[in-house]
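A common beginner's mistake is to predict each chain separately and then try to dock the pieces by hand. The better habit, illustrated here, is to supply every component at once so that their relative placement is modeled jointly.
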Amino acid sequence: MNDLNIKNLQTFFHTREEIVKAVDGVSFSISKGEVLGLVGESGSGKSVTCHSLLNLLPIPPAKIEGGEIFFKGNNLLQATSKNMRSLRGKSISMVFQDPMSCLNPYMSVLEQVAEPLIIHGLVPTQKDAREQAMEMLQRVGVDKIKDRENAYPHEFSGGMRQRAMIAMALITKPELLLADEPTTALDVTVQAKILKLLKSLCQELRTSILFVSHDLGVVAEIADRVVVMYRGKVVEENSTKELFTSPSHPYVKALIACRPTFETSVEKLPTVDDFMGQSPKSTPTAKVPISKSSNLNSQDSWIQVKNLAVHFVQSESRKVIKAVDGVDLSISKGKTLGLVGESGSGKTTLGRAILQLTQINSGEILWDGKDIVKINVSELLSFRKRMQIIFQDPYASLNPRLTIEQTLTEPMKVHGIGGNRSERSNLAVELLEEVGLESNHLKRYPHEFSGGQRQRICVARALSTEPEFVVCDECVSAMDVSVQAQVLNLLHELQISRNLTYLFISHDLCVVRHMADDIAVMRSGRIEEFGKVDEICLHPKTSYTQELMDSIPRTSKTGIF
Amino acid sequence: MKSFFISRLLQTIPTLLIIATLTFFMTRFAPGGPFDSEKAIPEEIKVNLESHFGLNLPLFDQYLLYMKNLLAGDLGPSFKYVGWDVSELIGVAFPVSLGLGVSALLIALFVGLPAGMVAALRKNTLWDYLPMGLAMVGICLPTFVLGPILIMIFSTKLNLLPALGWYSWSDLILPSLTLGLFYAAYIARLTRAGMLETLKQDYVRTARAKGASPSRVVIKHALRGGLLPVVTFLGPAFAGLVSGSFIIESIFFIPGLGKFFVTAAFNRDYTMVLGTVLFYATLIIALNLLVDFLQAWLDPKAREQR
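With all components supplied together, the output reads:
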């Protein structure tokens, strides 16, 4: 018998201008003990589906317009708010994406984990609730909770917080768990552990899971069956194995093809447009191995970093944090050095230090043998022209009050590129066309563009000084896979046409593998391993690198590819 | 945490010394003196008076003498209220202002907090527009307008409450209402904004997902975060309230500290000005320290940062 049965669910958002059909006729069901993956890119309506289930939507503007949600035979859409409350947290629990913002910062973790028991009157006393919570926390691997009974969320790491969140959701032994991107904010090694934990606990408690994610790899790891959503509709529903081996809908085919995988390498990633275009072209999945032929203009160890250290002093506790702690690297001209590491490993600080955007404590940064740490301000300015950066968040890194033209021409003005305004303006148009945008975009403001377009603008901005070296700091991490593929392709094309050198910083090993020639693995401020990309990916020398590789959710582990 | 408060306490000493020094020289450089009045007093009497209070000494010596006495806890004699020490005057006037201030603050809290919370929970309904509209009026309406209006209604027309003076408990009602409603308006707006901000937070949604009832969601999960901005505002607000309001005290003829404060400045009553300024400064510092305590109690993260 099905635990959950959703029929033709419609949830719309009524904004002042229009009605957004976030969920538009979605149907699926979950049977007892099953793990159903719900996959889609941002805005596809997967979270709204989840929130509709528990009636957690902000009403207004959201409104459930139609459909039925049957949970063990009862239509949840007709339940009274009191009945709904008795289900929430008891029979149907939820785990959210961001474990920092989703735990109450003013309440101890133990108290929050115990709360569902108290709310639903499942234990006679507060003391029992706390004891059960303690037991549950230990089971999900929150270590040393016994000594930290009064610890608050901010005293926990991200992974521990997400464990606490899972403990909180499972403490009432619910029949259904809604997991909304539960591992997206976590590092890969932590993600792997959390996925394992979720799966084993739910098997033990016979809890069904609706696992929502944008990441096909993660879903392949955990789900028995997958539902793919696109623009509010279900486009495909299939068993995990079937979905990956023989997807039927073009969008699903595109999604599978356009994410770089760890095992295969292609010159150019296919994009969703290739699949969704009017004329279904001959499948561009033909994976051409990258010709890693040595570039003619390549020059080994063009930029050299020697024993670089960046320390921060925490203002309150006076503790010294060694963000970068004695790093040696070399970057070859015209090549890409991939820098991978988990959050807090110091990769962003290292990138900024190489660009002299952060004060360094010691060490040398040599460009063609010239130490740019020791040069004076005016000399550094001319170096700045040669090195640029692209940041992670294209929403935050463009000034919302400047037109695209102003954003693009300002660096030219600073570095004396283009004689006058109209000349610079023409150069800006050329840049826009180079990154795949149009000249009529020049007078617009950043908010008029989508995330992918904005990142293209950021790329154009970085190129406006005609640099030789560009640091890409997690520049595709916030993007959907289809957009990510476009931006990665763009970066790759530009590298060839302009003979650019990249320092490509990312937490995502698959993306780095796709982009990089050399790779450096960073951990707690030090370089764990450094070498040719294939060498390290195929034969990692340290156990940490091995662990990183093993943690990547991949479809091939399930024997699909 | 402990060391934070000890260091904060120690910081108050230089702060107060700097305030004392600045005030001392600023009052002295203002034109006129305590014994220049419209009715000219004979020159020899003025000289006698000035030497009695040490005003004939070089300015810097006067400063050193004042600071020496200050460190011993002596604020000196008043130049205008003959036979009274400044500390005695403050001792008489402060309890009056304190009584008025505390009752005004209670009114402000009892009106402002619920109004702000109801407005936040019933956002964009009459329950939001009505109290917030009134609060806007309350903020815009100066106390010297509201005071006479209240006197007109409750004393002159209805004859329910005394209009002026400071003799019985009923005298407290109108002035503390006048003063309290202004602060109530502020608190209501801050509470509303704070609550709306916390109700939007993800952890409030988590609480709902646990099956918590609406009242539990508000009281256990949203209230603490929502009240933090109000607590921050309360410190300086309370200091302002209890140190007396010149306007309120003038309207209602109340012998509080605020009146001394202003008249002392007009009279060039040097020691009195200095005494009241230092008293006010100490009060503000102490209350801000109290606010820090309260915030640390409400917010575990703030506890750790200190």
